[in-house]
Amino acid sequence: xxxxxxxxxxxxxxxxxxxxxxxxxxxxxxxxxxxxxxxxxxxxxxxxxxxxxxxxxxxxxxxxxxxxxxxxxxxxxxxxxxxxxxxxxxxxxxxxxxxxxxxxxxxxxxxxxxxxxxxxxxxxxxxxxxxxxxxxxxxxxxxxxxxxxxxxxxxxxxxxxxxxxxxxxxxxxxxxxxxxxxxxxxxxxxxxxxxxxxxxxxxxxxxxxxxxxxxxxxxxxxxxxxxxxxxxxxxxxxxxxxxxxxxxxxxxxxxxxxxxxxxxxxxxxxxxxxxxxxxxxxxxxxxxxxxxxxxxxxxxxxxxxxxxxxxxxxxxxxxxxxxxxxxxxxx
Length: 331
Fold this sequence. Notes:
Elements: H1 2-11, H2 15-32, E1 39-40, H3 42-61, H4 67-89, H5 91-94, H6 111-125, H7 131-139, H8 143-161, H9 170-176, H10 181-187, E2 208-209, H11 211-218, H12 243-254, H13 270-273, H14 285-297
Helix pairs in contact: 3-4, 4-6, 4-7, 8-11
Transmembrane segments: 7-29, 41-61, 68-89, 95-117, 124-145
Keywords: Membrane, Transmembrane, Transmembrane helix
Region (Disordered): 299-331
């Protein structure tokens, strides 16, 4: 125990620099090695950057009057972000990596746990009047936004429920589904928005990540709880062929002005880069350039592991990729 206390005493003044190193390492690992989190949509990226910056800068700015309360609030938001990331990764992945702690790299999965615990400890020990209350406000700051998203989700569920199950084809659903923020997210499942850490449930590794959608999905038991998602099986129990294309066609019917694909540069690994080669006619010019680079490495489609670039479906009308994507996260 004495050795442990001495080690912690030695480590404590170095923790701010250690945290910065961990943040860089976790980002780099997600970008170039094993992609756990996809590209956040703009609002989520802004929240992540601002709250993480507040957490990392706290040791140097905590004595700046006025600014310290803003940092405490943002650290409360950061605690919520860490809680979300921890739940998204899941105990089933966090606990086994403890067996391989000596490899260090797998332990990066624990960065959200470590950062969240530090943020809570800082608020608890801060020598500022009302520090805990300000931190708590930050923790709860995203709750009203999630309630708004949940309201839209229930509107969509109610609209779909009005259509008899046997008649829930694309045209019938398109006639009743409201064109809202959540409808765009839910219709973009499988091929555009990443909803589950086990990407087999997504059907692909979709490039965009919106926590508002995921929390609403998690609040409902099961995997196929998205009312706008193409089913895994047809009425006879057979697996639905070309499920991704089915979902993309439905999305295009609901939101013809939105691009079907986005420029996903969030991971430099084969399964993420391979996204560009799936229906290249839907790519933006920049994404198509990336696809050509990728194809130069693997000139034969069958040599690219894990996916097939061929499709039995005729191409959809090309989406106008020159239009700004707005909230769904175009770069």
